[in-house]
């Protein structure tokens, strides 16, 4: 769902103009604040330092501009919003180091990727760098900052925090009024005091600011955990400062930090500040009446080019009569149409005139005031639409709150503003189960309390939390808001379309590749088709509006997943999460897979790891209201997202290079040997001649020509081909082959078995011929006879052979089922033809598996991958025998069934008398 | 016992014995009646069929207006392309400037033959109905291109006509559900055979409308069997969706039908004759379309085995199938594979509609979005 933006830096100018527009005379509206908050606020004080920072910000922006699609980036625009990718962020960091001498940690870039924010960190680093000149890398630099902080908080450090303070100016007074008596309300306002401290103290004492985010990770945890309980901080300032102060010794801090980077269980205070400021924006929404309880006719859908959004677009069209307006980021309508079409096709969804006639494009941007629409269009929409569905969100587990909030929080508030303006409309907001994504949360029910915001670390989790909480506040303005919270959204059960950016795609691929899974409790995931269908049902059902729904389906337990993968022939071993992570990272480093690069970045990012950990260790989400709704509306009930449902997705993942299906060269899953003996005789060129490569139409061996009954060894299958008018002397031939399968998946989808081994045929070559490539297809083409008749195909064998001189030969063999009593022989006799590559058949004949070796080799002699446990081996062997036996049985039955039907048809047609007519 | 139940007192008057001519049930549509032209059409073996032309008006210039012949499935009728309650295929074709022609071949439920035992086999359809309708249309459209969109048995018999060379020069064929290689589930095949053999001396067709046969009838056990494990209480829906005329297959994905279509199922699909089963069984067991009449030389124009004669196909073919087709399973994919191997020169493409069953590819409320786009794109490319 993460979208690439083309013109954010251009949008910055429009924000400034947007800021100038006064609307309604009732103070600031959401869009005004949006404009203010998104970075165009004037820098506060301390001119020289600010100037310095501004210059640096401009320099950083100039460098960063090279890595975004637009080619330039304004200092207050977010690098990722402008289209920068995780890969280009890595490049940017090294470029900044090389060209500007600016040392940045990659995590800092992800946390807040505006050049102004990046520049703010720099004077500090420089100052400390002079103090401690030896330290080069950012990792070593940080402890010194921590150490330096308590005493080295001079005025020079102050302005760095100016920006959040500035953005706070408007809401601050409101906040301040209720945070001024902190001791009284300390039990529940612990985060606000911290905030208040920051804002109040910034100009005067200015102690924490730049060092704070760094210090926050190791130090703030005790503060927050003890905070609510101790409940009587005289002021918040000593409270936050205290844990830092007793630890001025640089060495231990330096020793601890690099080894324990993910131990940051709390949010950064400036993020909390920002979150509270954003929540306050909801208070500016207009009051509104209730919408008419009728199914929608005109729907605004955002995020239609994303994974869930595109599926919801089609479901909206299918299951309602609505016309859908799609807000798509593009320069004009034509580009928007092209972009939507591309997205739908990418996800295997139809894109035709029938779809286009019910969709209207709105080129715009969720991150801009009034969605980047003209005032006329905005007003028209406000009065015409009767439903708003907000799916658009920036989904990136690496980026921080500052970087994601414009899309995920302010965008949601803009939609709320549109919903509350003009005709009352319900707003259906796609939230996420991430709002519960706190390590150690006890339950995730639809009406359970959300996570503690100060314990959400990943920016994505924070933005989804903030958006949902802000919209809860909007409910108090009369707005009907539905929060739909999907968990993991798995690939489509029918098309296999998946979300390449989604973590679960990467994890599933890694599970299959490495054959290991981390120990998790539950995976709250549901396939996209079900999530989309239920979400659309909520949108179309007025009685369902205004509630919270968990669209998490039936959670998968660890045992379920392990069992599923074993069912698919992929026996996995369970590892501890940390062990798994280290192991997976090592494997990804040793054998880099470009398609999985994002996974290794996630596994290395401390914040994203927290998110993973919370996800994997979280409880099962419950969804009582959703279940009741699904039942009431007669929708398909949620089922576990099991192996069968994931199959298509897995195939598609494998096709795109993320996952990997077992292949021919791997250690086979199961194998056994097959020895055949028989004879061949020369084929005269002529009608029996064949082109070896292709069509079967040359299959000249007619039904009747095949001799009946067992052929004595060494005897010629007489008249094997009409072409063999003058058969030469029959020549013995034998094959000793090894048949193997790489996975059961190969059997079920391709019905194919791999063949290796050698063929001894003195008539072709005195030495044995080696099988260069060989395949056997069981019951090819459903057994449809080559020619009209009762001779059904039972098995087809195609071998490419090489002789010791390098000559290349082909062998084509078939087993046939016929309505005759020699069934046992039909299963063993292979009619073969051989020839030189590119030439017609030279020899034809029949080879048979000797009856005594059949059971010995092909049932008792089955070998299974030694890495499996003995239980798994037995299961594998039985599965193969059952599958093969059933297929052969069906194949053999075919001709008999036809013969029997012919007998039945001999009866005289009866003429029933139906009296009532 | 119940099989022998006959009650002459409740028997309805045998209307067909009074009438001397066959009348077609009127079409149900929401088109302008002036634009729907019913053509009296009788095949050379004397069977009255229905042929309907829908005038596209001035949506496309008359000279550049490809004709599209729509062939329904057995026991369905041209109504299946004209559903008034949803966006139907005729609407979509008209909007794209095509001229739809609808043939009610002798298996249509608008005609009485299925029910009253005017016996026929699929050979008759392939030899008379389709080629003669095509010839008739050609006399009207001149040298404009003619496409065929065919469903189920309509498509299966069309494949027999095509491989016999009786409908040369089509601009393209869209086949839904099944084409040259019919494949039924083993269970369906077995039940079809068993039920056919057990019932054929007692009844000659399986009705779908419970209201027309009543509770006290010899068909009641069939409806009772069809209701096993059914989720929908409607007996018509049960015998179609849950049982496909007693064979145990499923004809459509229940959720895809609108309520209006669901309530009209008995109009859209009629009774299935049992006497067609031997031919159907022969075709299904051979996994290819085969001729029934081996000794009747009137049918010698038809190939003994359509797949062997597939080289005669002279037009691009689009094979469509729902991924959840409960009746013909993955016959279309099989057909694509077999033709790609045996007749690689043919222009055959296969498109799977994810999540769709058999009938809902035309009757479903989302069919316009999910299915018709593929058809229209195919027609547009070869216009």
UniProtKB/TrEMBL annotation, chain A:
Signal peptide: none annotated. Residues 47-126 form the Carrier domain. SUPFAM superfamilies: ACP-like, NAD(P)-binding Rossmann-fold domains. GO terms for molecular function: phosphopantetheine binding. Residues 1-23, 147-166, 192-268, 704-732 are annotated as: Disordered. GO terms for biological process: antibiotic biosynthetic process. Keywords: Phosphopantetheine, Phosphoprotein. Residues 712-728 have a biased composition (Low complexity). InterPro entries: ACP-like_sf (IPR036736), FAR_NAD-bd (IPR013120), NAD(P)-bd_dom_sf (IPR036291), PKS_PP-bd (IPR020806), PP-bd_ACP (IPR009081), Thioester_reductase-like_dom (IPR010080). This is Polyketide synthase.
UniProtKB/TrEMBL annotation, chain B:
Signal peptide: none annotated. GO terms for molecular function: oxidoreductase activity. Keywords: FAD, Flavoprotein, Oxidoreductase. The keyword Endoplasmic reticulum does not apply. It comes from the Bacteria. Gene3D superfamilies: alpha/beta hydrolase (3.40.50.1820). Its cofactor is FAD. Residues 66-158 form the AB hydrolase-1 domain. The keyword Chaperone does not apply. Belongs to the GMC oxidoreductase family. This is Esterase. It comes from Streptomyces caeruleatus.
């Amino acid at each position: 769902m993460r979208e690439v933006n083309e013109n954010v830096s251009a949008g910055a100018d429009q924000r400034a103009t947007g800021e100038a527009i006064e609307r309604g005379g009732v103070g600031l509206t959401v869009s005004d604040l949006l404009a203010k908050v998104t970075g165009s606020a004037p820098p506060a004080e301390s001119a020289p330092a600010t100037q310095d920072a501004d210059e640096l910000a401009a320099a950083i922006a100039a460098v960063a501009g090279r890595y975004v699609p637009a080619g330039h980036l304004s200092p207050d625009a977010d690098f990722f919003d402008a289209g920068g990718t995780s890969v280009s962020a890595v490049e940017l960091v090294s470029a900044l180091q090389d060209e500007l001498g600016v040392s940045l940690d990659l995590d800092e870039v992800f946390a807040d990727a505006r050049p102004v924010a990046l520049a703010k960190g720099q004077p500090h680093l420089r100052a400390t760098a002079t103090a401690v000149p030896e330290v080069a890398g950012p990792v070593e630099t940080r402890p010194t900052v921590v150490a330096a902080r308590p005493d080295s908080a001079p005025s020079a450090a102050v302005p760095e925090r100016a920006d959040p303070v500035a953005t706070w100016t408007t809401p601050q007074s409101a906040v301040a009024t209720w945070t001024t008596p902190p001791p009284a309300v300390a039990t529940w306002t612990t985060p606000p005091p911290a905030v208040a401290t920051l804002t109040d103290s910034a100009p005067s004492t200015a102690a924490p600011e730049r060092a704070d985010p760094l210090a926050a990770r190791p130090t703030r945890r005790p503060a927050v955990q003890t905070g609510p309980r101790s409940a009587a901080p005289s002021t918040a300032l000593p409270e936050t400062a205290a844990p830092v102060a007793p630890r001025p010794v640089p060495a231990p801090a330096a020793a601890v930090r690099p080894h324990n980077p993910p131990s940051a269980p709390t949010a950064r205070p400036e993020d909390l500040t920002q979150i509270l400021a954003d929540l306050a924006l909801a208070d500016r929404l207009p009051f509104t009446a209730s919408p008419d309880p009728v199914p929608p006719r005109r729907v605004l859908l955002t995020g239609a080019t994303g994974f869930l959004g595109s599926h919801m677009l089609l479901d909206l069209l299918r299951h309602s009569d609505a016309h859908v307006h799609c807000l798509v980021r593009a320069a004009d309508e034509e580009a928007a149409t092209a972009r939507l079409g591309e997205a739908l096709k990418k996800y295997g969804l139809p894109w035709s005139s029938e779809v286009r006639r019910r969709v209207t494009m709105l080129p715009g941007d969720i991150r801009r005031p009034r969605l980047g629409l003209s005032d006329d269009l905005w007003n028209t929409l406000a009065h015409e639409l009767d439903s708003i569905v907000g799916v658009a969100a920036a989904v990136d587990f690496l980026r921080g709150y500052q970087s994601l909030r414009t899309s995920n929080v302010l965008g949601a508030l803009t939609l709320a503003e549109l919903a509350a303006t003009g005709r009352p409309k319900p707003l259906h907001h796609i939230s996420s189960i991430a709002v519960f994504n706190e390590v150690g949360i006890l339950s995730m029910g639809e009406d359970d309390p959300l996570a503690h915001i100060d314990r959400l670390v990943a920016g994505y989790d924070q933005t989804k939390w903030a958006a949902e909480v802000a919209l809860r506040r909007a409910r108090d303005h009369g707005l009907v808001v539905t929060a739909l919270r999907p968990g993991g959204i798995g690939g489509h059960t029918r098309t296999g379309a998946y979300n390449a950016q989604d973590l679960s795609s990467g994890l599933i691929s890694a599970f299959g590749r490495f054959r290991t899974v981390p120990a998790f409790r539950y995976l709250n995931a549901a396939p996209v088709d079900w999530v989309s269908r239920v979400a659309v049902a909520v949108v179309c059902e007025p009685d369902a509006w205004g509630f919270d729904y968990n669209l998490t389906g039936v959670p998968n337990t660890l045992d379920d997943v392990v069992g599923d993968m074993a069912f698919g022939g992929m026996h996995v071993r369970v590892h501890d999460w940390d062990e798994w992570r280290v192991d997976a990272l090592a494997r990804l480093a040793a054998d880099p897979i470009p398609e999985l690069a994002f996974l290794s970045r996630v596994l290395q990012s401390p914040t994203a790891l927290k998110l993973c950990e919370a996800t994997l260790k979280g409880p099962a989400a419950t969804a009582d209201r959703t279940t009741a709704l699904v039942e009431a509306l007669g929708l398909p009930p949620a089922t576990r997202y099991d192996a069968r449902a994931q199959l298509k997705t897995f195939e598609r993942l494998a096709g795109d290079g993320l996952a990997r299906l077992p292949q021919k060269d791997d250690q086979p899953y199961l194998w056994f040997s097959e020895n055949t003996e028989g004879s061949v005789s020369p084929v005269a060129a002529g009608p029996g001649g064949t082109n070896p490569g292709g069509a079967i139409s040359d299959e000249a061996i007619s039904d009747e020509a095949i001799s009946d009954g067992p052929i004595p060894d060494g005897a010629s299958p007489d008249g094997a081909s009409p072409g063999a008018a003058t058969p030469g002397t029959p020549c013995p031939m034998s094959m000793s082959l090894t048949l193997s399968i790489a996975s059961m998946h190969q059997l079920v989808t391709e019905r194919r078995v791999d063949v290796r081994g050698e063929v001894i045929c003195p008539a072709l070559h005195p030495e044995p011929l080696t099988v260069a490539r060989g395949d056997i297809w069981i019951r090819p083409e459903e057994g449809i006879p080559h020619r009209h008749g009762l001779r059904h195909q039972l098995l087809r064998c195609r071998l490419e052979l090489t002789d010791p001189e390098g000559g290349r030969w082909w062998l084509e063999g078939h087993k046939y089922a016929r309505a005759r009593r020699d069934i046992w022989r039909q299963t063993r006799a292979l009619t073969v033809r051989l020839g030189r590559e590119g030439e017609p058949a030279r020899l034809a004949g029949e080879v048979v598996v000797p009856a005594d070796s059949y059971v010995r080799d092909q049932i008792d002699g089955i070998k299974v991958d030694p890495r499996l446990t003995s239980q798994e081996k037995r299961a594998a062997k039985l599965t193969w025998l059952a599958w093969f036996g059933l297929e052969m049985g069906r194949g053999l039955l075919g001709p008999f069934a036809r013969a029997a039907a012919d007998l039945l048809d001999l009866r005289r047609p009866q003429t029933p008398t139906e009296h009532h007519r | 016992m119940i099989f022998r139940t006959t009650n002459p007192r409740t028997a309805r008057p045998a209307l067909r014995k009074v009438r001397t001519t066959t009348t077609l049930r009127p079409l149900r549509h929401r088109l302008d009646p002036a634009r729907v032209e019913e053509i009296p059409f009788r095949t050379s073996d004397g069977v009255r069929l229905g042929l309907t032309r829908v005038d596209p008006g001035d949506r496309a210039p008359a000279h550049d207006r490809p004709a599209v012949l729509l062939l329904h499935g057995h026991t369905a009728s041209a109504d299946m392309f004209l559903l008034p309650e949803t966006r139907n295929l005729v609407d979509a074709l008209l909007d794209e400037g095509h001229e739809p022609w609808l043939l009610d071949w002798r298996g249509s439920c608008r005609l009485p033959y299925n029910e009253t035992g005017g016996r026929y086999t699929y050979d008759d359809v392939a030899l008379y109905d389709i080629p003669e309708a095509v010839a008739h249309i050609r006399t009207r459209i001149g040298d404009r291109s003619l496409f065929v969109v065919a469903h189920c048995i309509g498509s299966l018999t069309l494949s027999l006509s095509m491989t016999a060379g009786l409908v040369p020069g089509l601009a393209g064929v869209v086949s839904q559900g099944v084409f040259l290689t019919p494949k039924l589930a083993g269970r369906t095949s077995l039940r079809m055979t068993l039920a056919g053999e057990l019932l054929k001396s007692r009844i000659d067709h399986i009705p779908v409308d419970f209201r027309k046969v009543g509770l006290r009838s010899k068909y009641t056990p069939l409806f009772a069997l069809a209701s096993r494990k059914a989720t929908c209480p409607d007996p018509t829906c049960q015998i179609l969706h849950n049982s496909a005329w007693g064979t145990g297959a499923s004809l459509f994905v229940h959720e895809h039908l609108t309520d209006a279509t669901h309530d009209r199922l008995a109009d859209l699909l009629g009774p299935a004759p049992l006497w067609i089963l031997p031919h159907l069984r022969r075709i299904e067991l051979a996994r290819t379309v085969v001729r029934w009449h081996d000794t009747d030389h009137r049918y010698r124009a038809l190939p003994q085995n359509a797949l062997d004669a597939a080289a005669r196909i002279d037009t691009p073919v689009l094979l469509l199938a729902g991924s959840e087709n409960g009746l013909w399973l993955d016959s279309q994919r099989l057909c694509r594979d077999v033709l790609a191997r045996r007749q690689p020169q043919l222009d055959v493409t296969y498109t799977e509609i994810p999540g769709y069953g058999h009938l809902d590819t035309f009757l479903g409320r989302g069919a316009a979005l999910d299915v018709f786009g593929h058809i229209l794109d195919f027609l547009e490319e070869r216009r």
